């Protein structure tokens, strides 16, 4: 049998068989007491360790311990900053089938004049389909029975945090991979035909399109950032409508953080042309917010990785570009412990922390489900900063 992490109403509704016998509803005071005993043992207190070992013989305490661990992994997971949520829009899917992100095209341009006693002109409406499919990620950790006997609980103490970090890192890597494919900007989303393409609903194919690569790959500066904003604003969608985005995210690797901060946090901008200097308020900072994505430094293997910068619409804007989806009802990591301890000769169940039947280990497993997708890239821009 296994113990599965459940929260909220789902946790209260479950009353299935577990490794410790029938699941029971534990009071908050019982869980708090278990957390206090567990914390004392983790802190290295000899008295706390003795109390922990004595309490382990109680089935209710065993269940409370694993509820504490379940809560711990959720707490640690939520405490780790989610940088990706600042430039990627979250969504959920019902199952492992591809989810269609539908963009209705056509019918939005200005209305045509209608002469007297003339039929209203028909308007073309089509739809673009972008697909997001989630996948399962996970891993296992093993703790030896000897470490339990030796009072060495460091592994058990760090396990929830390690699993939470692993789950958060999986999200962060997936989101950052929307920006880079390891060889510079992601060629599937940042290319010469990334936006303004014509969609054929009958064949589910695209044709044509224009580039979201900044000409000349300028280094990040106030001038190049202004040029990128202007380039996006001058674009028109397939119906000839202007691109209006109120807020953007400037996503950079750690190597560009301070360059970006100098640009966005400056109170004034001084621009010199010949002998004339013009001083103005920082008109860019109100439109653009900085996001430092350290995973770009890890995932992008191109020589231009330290100088590459991305401009994408704010996830809250109407023109969303990047998505990260999770399986509905499984938005947070699922932590389980393997119960393969066997049964005592005299009868009775054995808790997982007593070690497995075969090799005396205690195994924990984490599962996380997510997927990503890029959609309309018309309000995006990228530069490698190489200057060519």
Q: Could you walk me through the main structural features you see in this protein, from its secondary elements to its overall organization?
A:
Helices cover 28% and strands 27% of the residues. The protein has 388 residues and is α+β, with helices and mostly antiparallel strands. The chain folds into 2 domains: 1-79, no CATH class; 81-388, Alpha-Beta Complex (phage-related protein like fold), CATH 3.90.1690. The strands form 6 sheets. Strands 1, 4, 7, 15, 16 and 17 form a 6-stranded mixed sheet that branches. Strands 13-10-14-18 form a 4-stranded mixed sheet, with helices on one face. Helix 2 (28-42) packs across helix 3 (46-55) and helix 2 crosses helix 4. It starts with a strand and ends in a 5-residue tail after the last strand.
Q: Please bin the fraction of helical residues.
A: 25-40%
Domain unit count? 2
CATH-derived architecture of the largest domain: Alpha-Beta Complex
Structure annotation, total helices: 9
- Class by alpha and beta content: alpha+beta
